Amino acid sequence: MKMTKTTQKAGFTLIEVMSAMAILALLVAMLAQMFTVATDSVKRGEGELSRNSAAQLGMETLLQSIEGMVVNDRTACYFHPDAGDASGFGLDEAWFVTTSTVMGSSNNVKKSYELVRFSVEENTHTNTTGMVYLSYDLMYSAMAITTTDRSPQVEDKLNWWEDSYIVNTLNSDMNKQVLIPNVVRFDFYLVGWDAENAMNEKYEHHYSFSSTTGGNDGIKGVPPAMIDIYIQVAGDESAVEGGSMLYAAQHGGGSDLETRGREILVRDSVVYFGRALPVCGPARYLEAISGKPHHYYVDED
Structural domain tally of the chain? Predict the structure, then answer.
């Protein structure tokens, strides 16, 4: 009788298989978490890069425009404090004439000046997930003119920012653009020729500046000696989160929700500072105090 030898091969027990699957699931979960963290980091980095680029470009536009500011007997400038969101962030605005050609006058070489307005508007947006939120966006409005352009009648009205034709033209979509989105603070600090605060006219418990009436030094027809700019910008994610709370607060959510939304916007914000000196300032100042025309150079005799 022939005997057959059977060889028994060892296999995995149920406990070993389940243990291996548990370890594999744990590794997959760890890898997924690492991928999620890396993705969020990339998104935050891209958001910060986008915010920094927009803020820096916007600040350069502001500085360039202010340096080219034109103030004389026919054109004037006006700085209005807390013109936007007065009960919240308090966002300033500025109106002046400039030789800068960032927008508008490039389409017509004969128009060498621009009426510009920098202001902050409250806008409503909807993101890709359908969430509705509010944002405060720094707007840049410009209208090209010449010194003899009669349509806006700048020469006939120094306080041209009160002219309905000019205001409506600057407010049209064709003449304005978003300069910096998600702004939570936008302030001007004006320094007069006596090295003191130039803000003079009282307006709703705040102080504004108009070159037609002069600042604290009482000198008319002269721009501020120096203008400091303070801009605070929220990140993209916090803008949506905080802005959605502001939107909900406006639609019956209550003041607590508004306070929380503003705290989120400020918490993840970055501050930018700039300083500009109007080039025409020294000549206009010397002319104002002496009564004689001055230029950007000193006569040898």
Answer: 1
Q: Which of 158, 272, 283 is nearest to 225 (CA)?
A: 283
Q: By residue range, what is the domain housing residue 264?
A: 35-290
Residue 301 in any domain: the answer is no
Residue-wise pLDDT tens digits, 153-178:
444 567 888 888 888 888 887 788 99
Q: What is the distance between the alpha carbons of residues 143 and 194, in angstroms, rounded to a whole number?
A: 33
- This prediction has a pTM of 0.77
Structure tokens at 245: 């709370």
* Type of residue at 124: T
Cα separation, 232 vs 259, whole angstroms: 17
Nearest to 58 by CA among 103, 95, 90: 103
- Establish if 137 belongs to a structural domain: yes
Residue 295 domain-assigned (yes or no): no
Q: Taking the mean position of all CA atoms in its chain, how far away is CA 167?
A: 20
pLDDT tens, residue by residue, 107-136: 444 557 888 999 999 999 998 888 999 999
Q: Indicate the SS3 state at residue 104.
A: coil
Helix (H, G, I), strand (E, B) or coil at 186: strand
Q: Which run of H or of E encompasses 177?
A: strand 176-180
- CA 43, chain centre distance (Å): 21
Instruction: Identify the residue whose tokens are 């990140």.
Output: 235
Q: Which two tokens stand for residue 51?
A: 């915010």
Q: Which of the pair, 296 or 50, is modelled with greater confidence?
A: 50
d(Cα 179, Cα 150) in Å, to the nearest integer?
Answer: 29
Q: Is residue 3 part of a domain?
A: no
- Report the distance separating Cα 138 and Cα 272, nearest Å: 14
